[in-house]
Specification:
- The chain is α/β, with parallel strands linked by helices.
- Helices cover 36% and strands 25% of the residues.
- The chain has seven helices and ten strands.
- It has helices spanning 46-54, 93-103, 108-121, 137-150, 167-184, 195-201, 232-249; strands at 2-13, 19-31, 35-39, 61-66, 69-70, 78-81, 155-159, 187-191, 204-208, 215-220.
- The protein has a six-stranded mixed β-sheet with strand order 6-7-8-3-9-10, with helices on both faces. A four-stranded antiparallel β-sheet has the order 2-1-4-5, covered by helices on one side.
- Helix 2 packs parallel to helix 4 and helix 3 packs across helix 4 (137-150).
- The model has no long low-confidence stretch (mean pLDDT 92).
């Protein structure tokens, strides 16, 4: 299975009806079970790219294919996780996780058992009956991950899911996400502003240029897991990726 973007572009109307180009000719293949992060300067179109893949926005040029089939709208084989958690405040944790299964018509007992399975995966079984407001930000994001996994997508699209968290919680959830990924082997496309996060998590890092976002470089992260952030190899790759991101933000910089 692979997700293939061919010549993907996005323009929208700006002030005075002038066309603003957000993305330009994106060509990318994400392989089955791969963890790929997307980096780039603010405003380069990272979130727009993810929203187009998820079917929440439309490209103005190019195609998206999954297993050779054209994707031109929301696809049940993909699930998106946002920075804002997007949990239903009136539903308990377990009912939030079961929501997608309910929409699929699964019987109550079966969807509860499935939801508990994924609560266990993210270590929150003891909070099944709690409401989102009773959880920390990190716990709410783990619920969001469990809810996405419960519908058994092939691809997880993650839009800066840890961006609003403190550094300690963020690092903890990065490690937990990798443990979940290694157990489930889902394909992950992960948008982040953090070079450190991208290098720690990913098989490959895609660096976009400033607007219009185009692929500047795709960097393979050939480091064994678990990775040590303090190691010399990690620091070298991090510096290499950071140089590309900084050059994308300031292309005239020597």
């Amino acid at each position: 299975m692979s997700l293939v973007l061919k010549n993907l572009s996005k323009s929208f109307a700006g002030e005075g009806k002038a066309q603003v180009e957000a993305l330009s000719h994106i060509d990318l293949e994400v392989r089955d079970g791969e963890f790929v992060s997307v980096l780039g300067p603010s405003g380069c179109g990272k979130t727009t790219l993810l929203r187009i893949i998820a079917g929440l926005d439309h490209a103005t040029g190019g195609t998206i294919q999954l297993d050779g089939r054209l994707i031109d709208g929301p696809c049940p084989r993909m699930a998106m996780i946002f920075q804002e958690y997007s949990l239903y405040p009136w539903r308990t944790v377990i009912d939030n996780i079961a929501f997608g299964l309910e929409m699929k018509g699964m019987e109550k007992q079966e969807r509860r058992e499935k939801a508990l399975e994924f609560l266990e995966l993210v270590g929150l079984v003891d909070f099944a009956g709690n409401y989102p407001y009773e959880l920390s930000g990190g716990m709410r994001q783990r619920v969001a991950v469990a809810r996405a996994l419960a519908i058994d997508p092939q691809i997880l699209l993650m839009d800066e899911p840890f961006g609003a968290l403190d550094a300690q919680t963020r690092n903890m959830l990065q490690r937990e996400l990798l443990e979940i990924w290694e157990k489930t082997r889902k394909t992950v496309l992960f948008v982040t502003h953090s070079v450190d996060e991208a290098v720690f998590l990913s098989d490959r890092v895609v660096v976009l240029t400033s607007r219009p976002g185009a692929i500047r470089e795709v960097v393979p992260i050939d480091l064994p897991r678990p990775r040590e952030r303090t190691g010399a190899e990690f620091a070298s790759i991090r510096r290499y990726v950071l140089d590309h991101v900084e050059h994308s933000a300031n292309p005239s910089k020597v």
